[in-house]
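Per your request, structure below.
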């Protein structure tokens, strides 16, 4: 038994169970499974066990109160939210620029200079006269 609300992937079930799709559809019609399906081809994508202890009736009085509540038109909804101090999620937020951390100073390239191999004086030849 699974202890979390995470569903099982039908793709994983199909790997080891050839007729998983048919069985899932049968259990769904019996009310034993909750299934999400692809919009494109209506194949089952994820399944969960349907826990009957979570099914309960809602009082008709509560339903009536719920349906009496008027929602503003979608166009006016953003204005209503802003009046209450809430901003819509799709509204551009003012972002603070990140504080720059102090960069390490860059090392200066070493000056080439003239390199001399004093210990090789008798072996090496001097080609400095060929430089431009």
């Amino acid at each position: 038994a699974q202890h979390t609300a995470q569903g099982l992937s039908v793709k994983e079930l199909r790997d080891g169970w050839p007729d998983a799709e048919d069985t899932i559809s049968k259990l769904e019609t019996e009310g034993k499974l909750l299934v999400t399906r692809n919009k494109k081809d209506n194949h089952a994508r994820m399944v969960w066990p349907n826990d009957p202890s979570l099914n309960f009736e809602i009082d008709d009085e509560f339903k009536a109160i719920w349906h009496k509540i008027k929602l503003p038109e979608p166009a006016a909804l953003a204005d209503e939210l802003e009046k209450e101090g809430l901003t819509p999620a799709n509204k551009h937020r003012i972002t603070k620029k990140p504080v720059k951390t102090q960069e390490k100073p860059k090392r200066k390239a070493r000056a080439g200079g003239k390199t001399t191999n004093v210990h090789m004086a008798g072996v090496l030849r001097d080609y400095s006269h060929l430089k431009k």
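The chain has a mean pLDDT of 83.

Regards,
D.
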